[in-house]
Design a protein that fits this description.
single chain; alpha/beta
Length: 211
């Protein structure tokens, strides 16, 4: 009887240890959530690319690059900084000319561009919610190609002198186990009343995955 009980206790102990080991292994394989950004243990969490899609870091690079060239241009120095009164800019819907669905990225791009222009302190920027409301009334959809006639009508109602408009394009290439996408942000500053392009430039960004 004692031997049988001892065997039962030993079997139960082995079973408990096995279950404990399985639980530990399972816990080790469970997903881990990490918090990143300034002031955390992972300040560079957002830096590595996880795919060839546009991410926030790419958009920041494209917008900062474009605005850097815009602010050093003759247009900005003469017609913006040299103006007695802050010029009023509006952002025409920027077109996604890639084959990808970039709804979230386009929203971030517009917000980033708007914020940077406002914070420059050199221009006044039309509130996008007001602009979108008027655009819908005129029949302008998000991503519409710039139309001078519609732009003049909308610009007058907004009180704006210039539109910032443009598009994002991409070139997709694959070779063996490599996949590369080259993105271009092309933007123009157009004088609404005359339709004259006062400034335009293009900023590029490439992403690649190797398998």
């Amino acid at each position: 009887m004692i031997r049988i009980r001892t065997q039962r206790v030993f079997s139960a102990l082995v079973l408990s240890l096995s279950l404990g080991a399985l639980l530990l292994v399972g816990a080790g394989c469970a997903p881990r959530a990490l918090r990143g950004g300034e002031g955390t243990a992972n300040p560079d969490l957002d830096r590595p690319a996880m795919s060839v899609l546009l991410d926030r870091d790419d958009i920041t690079y494209l917008v900062d690059g474009y605005l850097g060239r815009l602010e050093s241009s003759a247009f900005w120095q003469q017609r913006v900084k040299g103006s007695a009164k802050q010029p009023i800019l509006a952002i025409w819907p920027i077109r996604n000319a890639t084959s990808q669905h970039l709804d979230d990225q386009m929203l971030w791009l517009l917000s980033s561009l708007e914020t940077s222009l406002i914070n420059s302190g050199a221009v006044a920027v039309v509130d996008r919610s007001r602009q979108e409301e008027l655009a819908r009334e005129i029949g302008i959809q998000q991503g519409s190609i710039y139309d001078p006639a519609s732009a003049q009508r909308l610009g007058r109602q907004l009180g704006a002198q210039y539109f910032v408009t443009g598009k994002i394009t991409s070139v997709d290439e694959r070779l063996n186990k490599k996949h590369r996408v080259q993105y271009s942000l092309f933007l123009q500053v157009i004088e609404i009343e005359t339709g004259v392009i006062r400034f335009q430039d293009q900023i590029d960004r490439s992403k690649q995955i190797e398998r």
